[in-house]
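Page 47, continued from p. 46.
Same chain as before, 406 aa.
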Amino acid sequence: MEKLYIVGFGPGDEKLWTEKSRNIISNADRILSTNRISLSLADNKNVQNCKNCTLSELTAELASKIQGITVVLVSGDCGFFSVSKNIMRDFSEQYDIELINGISSIQYFSAKIAVSYDDAVICSMHGRNNILGIVPKSAYNKKVFALTGGKFKAHDICGILYNSGLPDIKVIVGERLSYPDEKITEGTAGELKDKIFDDLSVMCIENDSFKNPHQPLNDEDFIRGDIPMTKAETRWLSIQKLGIQPTDIVYDIGAGTGSVSVEMARKAFDGFVYAIEMKEEACDLMNQNKVKHGAYNLEIIHAKAPDGINDLPKPDKVFIGGSSGNMPEILEALIIKNPSLKIVSNAITLQSISQIIEGYEKIGLVDTDIICVNIAKSKKIQKYDMMTAQNPVYIITGQGEGECIY
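Result:
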């Protein structure tokens, strides 16, 4: 079996190559790399016989075996968002593959700005379709290191942070790292959003006001006003029934003060929550609670559902706290968006329970589960603790089968 080395060449400067990488490259019978890497190595005498390839051409080249040693050059760390993963998957039966790691751009950048990354979330926005993923990472973590490039540059990310309510978050951007024209810029997201940064930059985002997404919230933690609010125990049970995963897209329909929205945003700490609420006063309260609890992966839509739903991303989970009489229309709109979604609805009247169950059946939800929650909380009366009952609440769960009947 012929030998294939996947060699990480670091951020770009040849001085950062490991001695082992140099020896392997000098003894290679064939050297392949992507066009981007080849351009950065144009003046490097050690790799003048390197063949430039697009990603599809690289696959075709590796499918054509030669006698001797093949080297594929990859940027930085061959174990982090690297083409190495695809090569290992597709060619492990054809080659004896060995990975030779290099210094990653994040390692280099961390040392350059003297900020450790052992307690940071590390992610890549390079080539991603959804830039919004940087928002919850920045909201719920003290420190984030991010690779940028392709569709989304560092200035685009600063703009998203700014627009999501994080204008003062600290950002450091490293451009052209290890090259003679290397540049490091520091500021807030608001200060840097209008600048233009190099395509392949690295960012360090620091949020000293980050919130712990695993900390549950009590009723007294929310700004209340005169808008009804789902009480803590009912809120926790309803969210538990939804089974929200970190990367889920979640809707909260009839969101009220946003108590459920904020806690769901914490559960979806790598996802996004969209809260639809018809009352302007409630939207104002919800925004106050969003800011208070750092739930910047929460977007508030002032509309009467199902209005406002069509332009949103496909939901994985939906909580319905109130429908304002539009339950059939809301359920139909939701199942069209995602026939596999999971829905949890709250009801306190028998008429609402009946309407929800009929609505679930009409759109084809299965595994319908109904629980009635009767909660009593202690209240101090002189020297005694008396239990005060809250209204019983019905929590109704349904699961889509993956087929839409509309």
